[in-house]
Design goal:
By secondary structure, the chain is α/β, with parallel strands linked by helices. Helices cover about 55% and strands about 15% of the residues. It has twelve helices and eight strands. The protein has an eight-stranded mixed beta sheet, with helices on both faces. Helix 5 links the parallel strand 5 and strand 6. Helix 7 crosses helix 12 and helix 8 packs antiparallel against helix 9. The longest helix has 20 residues. The radius of gyration is 21 Å and the shape is elongated. The C terminus is likely disordered.
């Protein structure tokens, strides 16, 4: 990315995580500009990362080949409408991480001729351990797709989905997914505490188990069913626990939870389809 100029609209948690990833991967600070309304956030970016941040969004995007939209969804309409003339003149790739905002909606706010792609990262990107799903309509060029992929590879893994609607499923799986694992670890610790283990010890064991299991699952040869089977010896403690999960319809509960998240993601995209 060192030969391209990038602009971020929004320097909050995700914007900052992406900037840090890009800097680690070799992008020079002078190649990155940020439009950010918060003075404290601007000062932090300059102080901590050496990034020029401005309250003037038009100034931030001037000359950029890629513009990353990293603001709250409810802020996007006014921001992009105001920047429309600049974006239509420069025609950078607009790469949105704003949840629920469809490409058609974003294109309407930007105006004709501005290529738009979407990304759905997850919170582990803050530590460089994220996974991001990307979608781009046919009018986005191969070079622009490659640029989008390089940005998000700086904070973890990337996958492409062929249909925009799949991003709702991605949101339910990997976007919301870390919270599911945190819930399970939280409940494991609470159960152990209820059986007599000291709370700090229970929490530490649950958190470390979550971390270690994730490491095992992330190896190249990992097969989740095989990993589970290797721990669940016949007639042993793990098998007893898994049987209790099955009796409580654990699989059904997970399916319903992921389905609920996917439906909510689709619902959040509906009211904002029309351009202002």
């Amino acid at each position: 990315m060192s030969d391209q100029t990038l602009a971020f609209l929004g320097g909050g948690h995700m914007g900052r995580a992406l900037i840090q990833g890009l800097l680690r991967s070799g992008t020079r600070p002078e190649r990155i500009a940020v439009g950010e309304s918060s003075q404290a956030a601007r000062a932090g970016l300059a102080r901590d990362l050496g990034i020029a941040a401005s309250a003037d969004n038009a100034r931030a995007v001037a000359g950029a080949s890629v513009v990353v939209l990293a603001v709250k969804p409810q802020e996007a309409a006014a921001l992009l409408t105001a920047l429309g003339p600049v974006l239509r003149t420069q025609r950078p790739l607009l790469l949105s991480v704003a949840a629920g905002l469809r490409t058609r909606t974003l294109e309407g706010w930007c105006g004709a001729g501005v290529p738009v792609a979407r990304a759905m990262p997850n919170r582990p990107a803050l530590l460089g351990a994220g996974v991001t799903a990307l979608y781009a309509p046919p009018q986005v060029s191969a070079a622009q797709r490659a640029a989008a992929e390089r940005i998000f590879r700086s904070v973890g893994e990337t996958v492409w989905v062929p249909e925009e609607g799949h991003l709702d499923l991605v949101t339910a799986l990997s976007g919301s997914g870390p919270a599911y694992f945190f819930l399970l670890a939280e409940q494991m610790a609470a159960a152990a505490e209820g059986l007599g283990l000291e709370a700090p010890v229970a929490r530490r064991l649950a958190s470390a188990t979550l971390y270690g299991a994730g490491q095992l699952a992330h190896t190249a040869e990992a097969d989740l069913s095989r990993l589970k089977a290797e721990i669940a010896s016949p007639g042993g403690t793990t098998e007893a626990a898994l049987a209790a999960f099955a009796a409580a319809d654990f699989n059904g509960a997970v399916a319903r939870a992921v389905g609920a998240a996917a439906r909510r993601s689709r619902e959040l995209g509906v009211p904002i389809q029309d351009t202002p």
